[in-house]
Structures are given as structure tokens and as C-alpha cells.
Write a structure and sequence with these properties.
The complex is a heterodimer of chains A (231) and B (308).
Chain A: E1 2-11, E2 14-24, E3 29-33, H1 40-47, E4 53-60, E5 63-64, E6 78-81, H2 93-104, H3 108-117, H4 119-122, H5 134-146, E7 152-156, H6 164-179, E8 183-187, H7 191-197, E9 200-205, E10 208-213, H8 215-220, H9 222-229
Helix pairs in contact in A: 2-5
Chain B: H1 3-35, H2 42-60, H3 64-91, H4 98-120, E1 134-136, E2 139-143, E3 146-150, E4 156-158, H5 159-181, H6 183-193, H7 195-200, H8 205-231, H9 239-252, H10 257-277, H11 280-297
Antiparallel strand pairs in B: 1-4, 2-3
Helix pairs in contact in B: 1-5, 1-8, 1-9, 1-10, 2-3, 2-4, 2-8, 2-9, 3-8, 5-6, 5-8, 9-10, 9-11, 10-11
Classes of the chains: A alpha/beta (231), B mainly alpha (308).
Chain lengths: 231, 308
């Protein structure tokens, strides 16, 4: 599915990713862990074409996407839920969903399917996105990405600042996506959340892959967590 | 003429000015709102609209109505295409960097001006209005039997000026419908709010920018085509619309289309009225003072938007 091979990426002169590699398979939840500034968010942005990749390569189902213009990458079936949600705040819930549908050239059926996952959004279709509660905003950010009909879903700290019931809902949706064969790449700070859903965990340090392991390994060997993320 | 009829005449002149200014300033505001580009060449797109209107009407000759209709459609389209090309050739190369685009559009200003001087020449050229019937207007006075209407000498307006006054609301409604009811409008609004996230949802932001730059220039050109039968086309005519458009956009709030429309009506009306009663120079002084006062009281303008 997704293959990131030894990529370098930088913001101007600040090198963030240094030969980082990961793979994500269909129907698998890959969790990325690492300290602040390790390069997790930059990796997702690099996959989306939002940060220029200066070395290495990214392929999706064997198709090279490294040099594609950013707006062509979602069309390949990559849904992105950015850190901080980044909703189009002045647009309504319905319009935000429409943006997702347009991105994936999806129809009303997809819209109905996604709204069935988040019935509360269906009650607020005419409401401006920036007037929603934090939890509802995260639902909308997730719904917008799902409306694209993704085969690869990138989530950047989706549970940040959410109450437990909302975290549980997001977790359920992520599992549902896995069951449908979607490859999920999840960036998380909360280790407990990672251990509950991950099929595989990759630690990122200083823009490099430090460790690629199974969650069971982390449960039996907490020293690994302490070494890589300081918990 | 008495004060009342004289004031009405000034208000009508102000409405003509407000109508043209609304279209021109809306173009500038749209470009800034979506692209964050301060387009110093905006006045030259206005000038190009007027010059191309003269060129099209001269080329077609014949009936003034048909030639003017062709100019009304053709000149904004041509200017829009020129602007989109300028976006592709210049603004995209400087990555829409706010500072560099100011310098780049200053360069465009001189390029457009000098090319027009070399091809069109230094003379002012008239464009005949498609219709120009003088319509006498009534005024009222209090008589012994109540209100009585009468027709003061000199209180009149041409049918063409009424057309110009009506044109801006029609274009505004059309633009509002496009922005709020179409997919294109949704794409433009999403790009304005967050261009990076727009890219992550398959919106080709560079193409959107070229389109917006073209639409902004076309709106200025449309304003110019409307006004050129009243004022004539000249290669230096872009300075005033640029100054007034900046004043309007600053008063209305950078990037706020609602504020732009309100400020354009305010400044256009005051410009027209003061020009009739006093001098056009005093009108510009007044507008500049209003900007200064608004900036002191509300630095973000009357409807300065909250950025998320």
C-alpha cells in the first residue's frame, strides 16, 4: 500500500526528516510515536505533498507520488485529518463534507454512509464549523476525510483535547476503517490509545525511524517506551 | 439651482461613482482575500478595460449598442485572461510571497502602462454610450395645498448613468450567487480560509489563484467599461481607481467583501457629492481622512475578518 523510503524533508534550511522509512499495509493500523519535533507531523505532510521531499521516495500501490502536485495526491485515495483539525471554519458542516466528497469524486451514497457514522453531524449540517464543540469538530474533520473514500487514512493526533466518549468514538471509526481494508497511519501522543488500536508501532526520533515493532512488545517491555518517548 | 435639487444631482453622481468603485474595489478585495496579494497593478487592469472597450467599439463601429455590448463582455474577458497570464508568468514564480508580489505588481503596473502608451498612444479616447436619453427629474416643494412636484431646470440624469447605477447591484448579486451557491464558490471560499488544507482536499490552489486574479481584474475592467462612455479612455487613468479601491478595501476590512461593498458605496457617494459641491481633490482628501480615522478607531477596518 504505502511505502516511504528513506525520505528527507525540510522547512527551508531546517532539516526535519532524515532518511525516514515506513510502510503501511491495507487493513492495518500503523501508529507513529515520538517526542515533540521528532518529525511525525512533517512525515504526514510530506506524504500529502504539503512539505517538499528532497530525497528518497514515496509510493502508493506502486505508484510514485513523491513529485506529484499536492492537489493530485488526495485523488489517489489518501484521506488526511490534520493536527488541530484545520476545518474550513467559516463554512458549514455540509460544505466541509462537500469538500471531502469533491476531493474523492464521491456521491451522495458516500455522504449518507459517513453521516451514519456521525449522526450528530447530520443534525448540524447548516451550522458553521467553527461554532461546533471540540468533539464535533473532530467528528467533522474525520467525516470530511472519510467522504473522500480513502484507501489510506492519515490521522494526526485525532484525540488531542477530547473527552473519553469522543476518543472512544474516533477509535471505533479507526477500527471500522481497518475492517474495510483501509490502511491507517495514526500519529498519537497518548501511548495507551496507541496500544489499544495499533497493529504496528513505529518510533520516530530526529527525523529517522528508530524502531518498528508490535504493540505486544511494548506491553511486555515498557523500557522501550521509556527509551523512545520518555514515559 | 436650489440646494435640494442640487443635492439630489450630487447623490446621483455619487451613485454612478459608487457603482463603478464597488466593482473595482471588489476585484481588489477578492484578490487580497483569497490570495493575500496586494495588487498594485489593479488600477492598470481598470485602465486596460477602458482602452480595450475603446478598441472593441472602434473595431466594430456600426451600431453603438452592439459594439458596446461586445465591449462589455469582451474587455473584461480579455483583461481577465491577461491577468491570469500575469499570475502564471510572474506571481506564481515568486510563490505569492506577500512582499515580493507587491514589488512584482508595481512592475506589472509600469509594463501595462508603457505598453498601452506605445500601442494606444497618449490621447484620451471617447467611447459612445449605447443609449443616452436625458431624463428630467422632479423635485418637490411645500405649497399651500401640501407637497407639489415640479421640474427644476438642470435636474436630470441620462439613461446611461441610470444603467451604470443599476449594473453594480446586478453584478453583486451574480457574484454572491456564485460564491454561495456553486461548487466554484465553495472552492474559492475554502482556498481563502486555508490554502494548505484546500490542497490536501484536491483543490488546485495555483489554478484557483490564477482564476481569482483573473476575476479580480475582470471586475475592475467591467467597472472601467461602464464608466468609459462618461470619462474617456486614457493610459494614465488607473491611478484614481487604484487609490480609491485601496481606500475602500482598507475601510471595509482587508478581504471582507461585505465591508468592501459598504465602504465603496460610502466613499463613492462622498466622492461624487463632494466633487459636485466642491472639487474632486477635496473629495480625495476627505476619503484619505476617513481611512486615517478608521485605521485609528478600527485597525482591521469596519468588517475586518477574524483569521482562523
Amino acid at each position: 500500500m504505502l511505502k516511504v523510503e528513506a525520505i528527507d524533508a525540510a522547512y527551508g534550511r531546517v532539516q526535519v526528516l532524515r532518511g525516514l522509512s515506513i510502510t503501511a499495509r491495507a487493513g492495518e493500523i500503523l501508529c507513529l510515536l515520538g517526542r515533540n519535533g521528532a518529525g511525525k507531523t512533517t512525515l504526514l505532510k510530506a506524504i500529502m505533498g504539503l512539505v517538499p521531499v528532497t530525497g528518497g521516495g514515496i509510493t502508493l500501490d506502486g505508484t510514485e507520488i513523491t513529485a506529484l502536485p499536492a492537489h493530485r495526491i488526495p485523488r489517489l485515495g489518501i484521506g488526511y485529518i490534520p493536527q488541530g483539525r484545520r476545518l474550513f471554519g467559516e463554512l458549514t458542516v455540509a460544505e466541509n463534507i462537500e469538500i471531502g466528497l469533491m476531493a474523492g469524486r464521491q456521491d451522495r451514497e458516500t455522504r449518507a454512509r459517513v453521516l451514519a457514522l456521525f449522526p450528530r453531524l447530520g443534525e448540524r449540517l447548516g451550522q458553521r464549523a467553527d461554532t461546533l464543540s471540540g468533539g464535533e469538530q473532530q467528528m467533522l474533520a474525520t467525516a470530511r476525510a472519510l467522504c473522500l473514500g480513502p484507501k489510506l487514512l492519515l490521522l494526526d493526533e485525532p484525540t488531542e483535547g477530547l473527552q473519553p466518549s469522543m476518543i472512544a468514538l474516533i477509535r471505533e471509526v479507526v477500527r471500522e476503517m481497518r475492517a474495510r481494508g483501509v490502511a491507517v497511519v495514526l500519529v498519537e501522543q497518548r501511548v495507551d490509545a496507541v496500544l489499544e488500536v495499533a497493529d504496528r508501532v513505529v518510533f520516530i526520533e530526529n527525523g529517522r525511524t528508530a524502531l518498528d515493532t508490535a504493540p505486544e512488545e511494548l506491553r511486555t517491555n515498557p523500557a522501550l517506551l521509556h527509551r523512545h518517548v520518555g514515559v | 439651482m436650489e440646494f435640494g435639487p442640487h443635492l439630489m444631482l450630487a447623490v446621483l453622481e455619487g451613485l454612478v461613482q459608487a457603482s463603478v468603485l464597488t466593482l473595482t474595489a471588489l476585484g481588489l478585495s477578492l484578490v487580497f482575500g483569497v490570495m493575500r496579494v496586494v495588487n498594485v497593478a489593479h488600477g492598470e487592469f481598470f485602465m486596460l478595460g477602458a482602452v480595450l472597450a475603446w478598441w472593441i467599439t472602434s473595431l466594430l463601429g456600426g451600431g453603438a449598442g452592439l459594439a458596446f455590448a461586445a465591449a462589455l463582455v469582451g474587455a473584461p474577458l480579455m483583461v481577465g485572461a491577461i491577468a491570469a497570464l500575469a499570475d502564471w508568468l510572474v506571481l506564481r514564480r515568486v510563490a505569492y510571497d506577500p512582499e515580493r508580489t507587491i514589488v512584482a505588481t508595481i512592475g506589472l503596473l509600469y509594463i501595462f502602462q508603457q505598453i498601452t502608451l506605445m500601442t494606444f498612444g497618449p490621447d484620451a479616447r471617447p467611447v459612445p454610450p449605447p443609449f443616452n436619453t436625458r431624463l428630467a427629474l422632479p423635485w418637490f416643494e411645500w405649497g399651500e395645498g401640501g407637497i407639489a412636484l415640479y421640474w427644476p431646470w438642470g435636474l436630470s440624469i441620462t439613461s446611461y448613468k441610470l444603467f451604470v447605477i443599476a449594473a453594480a447591484p446586478v453584478v453583486l448579486v451574480a457574484l454572491w450567487l456564485v460564491m454561495t451557491r456553486t461548487r466554484l464558490g465553495l472552492v474559492l471560499r475554502a482556498t481563502r480560509i486555508d490554502s494548505e488544507t484546500a490542497r490536501a482536499f484536491a483543490i488546485p490552489v495555483e489554478q484557483v489563484y490564477a482564476l481569482v486574479f483573473g476575476i479580480g481584474a475582470a471586475l475592475a475592467a467591467l467597472g472601467a467599461v461602464l464608466v468609459v462612455p462618461i470619462r474617456q479612455a486614457h493610459y494614465l487613468m488607473g491611478a484614481d481607481p487604484l487609490l480609491l479601491s485601496f481606500i475602500v478595501v482598507i475601510i471595509g476590512g482587508l478581504g471582507s467583501l461585505r465591508g468592501t461593498v459598504l465602504a465603496a458605496v460610502l466613499i463613492g457617494m462622498s466622492d461624487g457629492i463632494i466633487s459636485v459641491f466642491f472639487t474632486p481633490t477635496l473629495a480625495k482628501i476627505f476619503a484619505t481622512l476617513v481611512v486615517a480615522m478608521v485605521l485609528v478607531a478600527r485597525p482591521g477596518g469596519l468588517f475586518g475578518e477574524r483569521r482562523t
